Amino acid sequence: MARLEGRRVLLVEDESLVAMLGEDMLLELGCEVELAMRLDKALSLARGGDFDMAILDVNLGETCSYPIADVLFERCIPFIFATGYGTAGIEPAYNAIPVMQKPYQIGQMATLLRHLLACETLAQKGTDPGKALTCTCAVGLGTRGPTQIRAD
């Protein structure tokens, strides 16, 4: 089982209380956390920060976190999406990315982050606009469309 202690996590969340909850859970899991609540700060951190993985809130006010996801793809940094809308709120081009259902639950968060660390092949964004992302470890999860793991 992949260990989370000491792993650096970029947490992108625009709601203050939800961000504090997510940060507290990550700290409890032993992670080091860098929090970004705005798209511009998150993009800056994603471009230059030293992270093992990231959690991206899909909806950031009037915009989405997909530009951050694209930077993380370029840098081969694994990540999960977080949303209260479930997998239905994810654009099809990102359908192989694991989705964490909000509100955050520490068990689900730990399971998904360990999944990221255990995945030998990172998801890759397709070159065709409608082409889905693929992750070899997601195949064994028995899902179609976005990977949504429930730990409850």
Total of helices: 5
Oligomer classification: single chain
Number of extended strands: 8
- Architecture in CATH? 3-Layer(aba) Sandwich
CATH class: Alpha Beta
CATH superfamily: Response regulator
**Largest sheet entry:** 6 strands, parallel
Which structural category fits the helices and strands?
alpha/beta
The third-level CATH topology is Rossmann fold
- Helical content stands at 25-40%
Order of helices and strands: EHEHEEEHEEHHE
Number of structural units classed as domains: 1
* Cα shape: globular
Radius of gyration: 14 Å
| Overall pLDDT metric | 83
In percent terms, what proportion of residues is strand?
15-25%
- Show unreliable segments: 126-152
Distance, first to last CA: 18 Å
Protein architecture, described:
- With 152 residues, the chain is an alpha/beta fold.
- The protein has one domain: Rossmann fold (3-Layer(aba) Sandwich), CATH 3.40.50.2300.
- It contains five helices and eight strands, in the order βαβαβββαββααβ.
- Strand 1, helix 1 and strand 2 form a beta-alpha-beta unit.
- The chain is globular.
- 38% of the residues are buried.
- The C terminus is likely disordered.
